[in-house]
Amino acid sequence: MAERENRGRGRNREEQAPEFADRLVAINRVSKTTKGGKNFGFAALVVVGDQKGRVGFGKGKAKEVPEAIRKATEQAKRQMIRVPLRDGRTLHHDIEGRHGAGRVVMRTAPVGTGIIAGGPMRAVFEMLGVQDVVSKSIGSQNPYNMIRATIDGLKKEQSPRNVAQRRGKKVADILPKRDVIDEQSDVAHNAPVAEATADA
């Protein structure tokens, strides 16, 4: 009886577990010099997301490619961030991110624009669930720097609801009238912050 209950609980956990998509951004051959000589292996860079506002990246090293990818994927899942999206498709405002010599600029875009971004940045936007965005990478084109700079910028992204809650105001007080209706449609896409609007 207890065994049946445990199996049932296991199935429930599997059904409730979020589904993630992943994208391999880069795979490089690496080596480490030791007293015995050089040890060769592979380093993988992977981006993971639920395509509904959550995204993360990870780097994994191993002697074999599949194991390096697995390690990178697991690390990406452990350090995911949540990013509020406008209408579930674009950013709420223009943002800039930096990491080392890399700098990226990301701008909100109207419906139908698509994802205008380079390879590493495109992977982040696709896994995040962004459908319309215009971005530009300045400086270092190293994929690791580009992704870290992109994540740095996305961490600064705030929805009008978050800003209104922090200031103790209503969303309508900090948005132009033409944007209020659009922001109200975000409720279905950003459930975690919907309560803040109701309280406001």
TrEMBL record:
<dbReference type="Pfam" id="PF00333">
    <property type="entry name" value="Ribosomal_S5"/>
</dbReference>
<dbReference type="InterPro" id="IPR013810">
    <property type="entry name" value="Ribosomal_uS5_N"/>
</dbReference>
<dbReference type="GO" id="GO:0003735">
    <property type="term" value="F:structural constituent of ribosome"/>
</dbReference>
<comment type="function">
    <text>With S4 and S12 plays an important role in translational accuracy.</text>
</comment>
<dbReference type="GO" id="GO:0005737">
    <property type="term" value="C:cytoplasm"/>
</dbReference>
<protein>
    <recommendedName>
        <fullName>Small ribosomal subunit protein uS5</fullName>
    </recommendedName>
</protein>
<dbReference type="Pfam" id="PF03719">
    <property type="entry name" value="Ribosomal_S5_C"/>
</dbReference>
<keyword id="KW-0699">rRNA-binding</keyword>
<dbReference type="InterPro" id="IPR020568">
    <property type="entry name" value="Ribosomal_Su5_D2-typ_SF"/>
</dbReference>
<feature type="domain" description="S5 DRBM">
    <location>
        <begin position="20"/>
        <end position="83"/>
    </location>
</feature>
<dbReference type="GO" id="GO:0042254">
    <property type="term" value="P:ribosome biogenesis"/>
</dbReference>
<keyword id="KW-0694">RNA-binding</keyword>
<comment type="subunit">
    <text>Part of the 30S ribosomal subunit. Contacts proteins S4 and S8.</text>
</comment>
<dbReference type="GO" id="GO:0015935">
    <property type="term" value="C:small ribosomal subunit"/>
</dbReference>
<keyword id="KW-0689">Ribosomal protein</keyword>
<comment type="function">
    <text>Located at the back of the 30S subunit body where it stabilizes the conformation of the head with respect to the body.</text>
</comment>
<dbReference type="InterPro" id="IPR018192">
    <property type="entry name" value="Ribosomal_uS5_N_CS"/>
</dbReference>
<comment type="similarity">
    <text>Belongs to the universal ribosomal protein uS5 family.</text>
</comment>
<dbReference type="InterPro" id="IPR014721">
    <property type="entry name" value="Ribsml_uS5_D2-typ_fold_subgr"/>
</dbReference>
<dbReference type="InterPro" id="IPR005324">
    <property type="entry name" value="Ribosomal_uS5_C"/>
</dbReference>
<keyword id="KW-0687">Ribonucleoprotein</keyword>
<dbReference type="GO" id="GO:0006412">
    <property type="term" value="P:translation"/>
</dbReference>
<dbReference type="InterPro" id="IPR005712">
    <property type="entry name" value="Ribosomal_uS5_bac-type"/>
</dbReference>
<dbReference type="InterPro" id="IPR000851">
    <property type="entry name" value="Ribosomal_uS5"/>
</dbReference>
<dbReference type="GO" id="GO:0019843">
    <property type="term" value="F:rRNA binding"/>
</dbReference>
